[in-house]
Every structure is written in C-alpha cells, then in structure tokens.
Amino acid sequence: MLREICESDAAPLYWATASPELREFAKAPPSSVEGFERFIARSRSKRAAGRGGVFAIIPAGDTSPVGVFQLNVFEEESGVVEWGFVLAVSLWGKGIFVESASLVLDFLFGEVAAKRVQGWCAVENRRAIQALKKLGAVPGAIVHDYPHFDRPRDGQLWTISAEAWRNRRLT
C-alpha cells in the first residue's frame, strides 16, 4: 500500500533506513527522528504547493512504513516528474519495490498526467538497475561525480515515458 507520508512515520522511517547497506548508493536519508520530522513537514508543504510529495510504502498486513517514493514536479507544463526511492534492506528482493513503483507510475501517468518519470542511479548499483529494468526504465546520460550522492560517484539518468508505461501495462 502507498499513502501520503505523515508525522507519525518519522520514527519507523528512521529505523527502516538506518542500514549502512541502504546508504551505500543513496543520498543519506535524515540521520535522526527529528530530521525525518523536518523532512515530512517539508514534503507535505511541497505537496500542498503542487510541486511534489512523498508516498510511504506500507507492506500488506503492516501499519508502519518501510520506505518512501519522493516525487518532484519540474515545470508542470513539461510533464516531467523526478523520483527517488528508498526501501528497507530487509525487504530487498521480495517484489515490494516493483509492486509499489508500479502503483506510483500508474498514479503519475494516470492522475497527474506526467509525460516522463526520471531518476538518477549510481552506475554501480546493480540491484537498483535491475529493478528499474523490470519497470521498463531506459538508461540515459551518465554524469561523472554526480552531486546527488553523498560521495563522488557516477550517476546515470533512468527514464520511463507515459507511452512506454501504458504499452507495458497492456501486455
């Protein structure tokens, strides 16, 4: 299940994202419960302004979030949404990412009428690259020492177009 992030998600998200393995390839999430509280407040303000938002990932039968999808709307007219995501290490390889990402993409290409969803991935993050390929994402530009990460590393832009997603959902 996905839902908008809320204040009570701060502590569970802090614990879900505290793993060094998770932080290896992603920009480090907030380093405290208070940091997550500030992140949640900023995210809800951004959503209220129509500039993006954050979905909490809640596994079936659970009530606590185990990860998030962060969405940033570029200029509304362009139809481009950038996403980033993080999921607790204990749930890697269980299909939760692809299932959740599919819901997010259905929402973005259906309700929001996005034309393209894009996000950056470290070129050596094989696990994330395989998950993106399962969604039909296409690799693009590589930027050396991309500043999105917490340390110097190469990043690659991965995109999914609305048309490609609709075609994929029909098959």
Q: How does this model look, in words?
A:
By secondary structure, the chain is an alpha+beta fold. The protein has a single domain (2-170), classed as Gcn5-related N-acetyltransferase (GNAT) (Aminopeptidase, 3-Layer(aba) Sandwich). The protein has six helices and seven strands. The protein has helices spanning 10-16, 20-23, 33-48, 96-110, 126-134, 162-170, and strands at residues 2-4, 52-57, 67-73, 80-87, 116-122, 138-143, 155-161. A seven-stranded mixed β-sheet has the order 1-2-3-4-5-7-6. Strand 3 and strand 4 form a beta hairpin. Helix 1 crosses helix 3 (33-48). It is globular and about 40 Å long. The chain starts with a strand and ends with a helix.
Structure described in brief:
It contains 6 helices and 7 strands; from the N terminus they run E-H-H-H-E-E-E-H-E-H-E-E-H. The chain is of the alpha+beta class and 171 residues long.
Radius of gyration: 15 Å
Task: Give the rounded overall mean pLDDT.
Answer: 89
The CATH top-level class label: Alpha Beta
Percent range of helical residues: 25-40%
Low-confidence stretches: none
How many individual domains?
1
Distance, first to last CA: 23 Å
CATH homologous superfamily classification: Gcn5-related N-acetyltransferase (GNAT)
Pattern of helices and strands: EHHHEEEHEHEEH
